[in-house]
Amino acid sequence: MLAVFAAYASAHEPDAQEEGIASFYSDRFQGATTASGEPFDQQALTAAHPSLPLGTKVIVTRADTGQEVEVLINDRGPFVEGRIIDLSKRAARELGMLNRGVAPVMVTTIQ
């Protein structure tokens, strides 16, 4: 009975969310090997996160504008205190944050 309840509860938990500051990769990382073993591509919808499993899909929502983008976690980082996710340039462009370099975001795990 307990196992059935645990399975039901885990299947119906809300998606994990995290709030903080997003940044994006410098062009000097283009082609560098990511933690997943893939070459980094500024035009892919990918991101680095310090702890989510590689291969996790997340929605990044800009807290101040509501703009959203779905990205795949394929690397580790960011390594700057206070930042929770490092985006490819394409993802940052879709969030409208290229000029500022950083933006307040909510990261929601979807898969």
UniProtKB/TrEMBL annotation:
Q: Name one GO molecular function term.
A: lytic endotransglycosylase activity
Q: Where is the RlpA-like protein double-psi beta-barrel domain?
A: 18-106
Is Lyase one of the keywords?
A: yes
GO BP: any one term: cell wall organization
Origin: domain of life = Bacteria
- What Pfam family is a match, any one? DPBB_1
- Keyword Lyase part of the UniProt annotation: yes
Q: Write down the HAMAP family for this protein, in alphabetical order.
A: RlpA (MF_02071)
Q: Which family does it belong to?
A: Belongs to the RlpA family.
What this chain does, per the entry, is described as: Lytic transglycosylase with a strong preference for naked glycan strands that lack stem peptides.
Listed name of the protein: Endolytic peptidoglycan transglycosylase RlpA
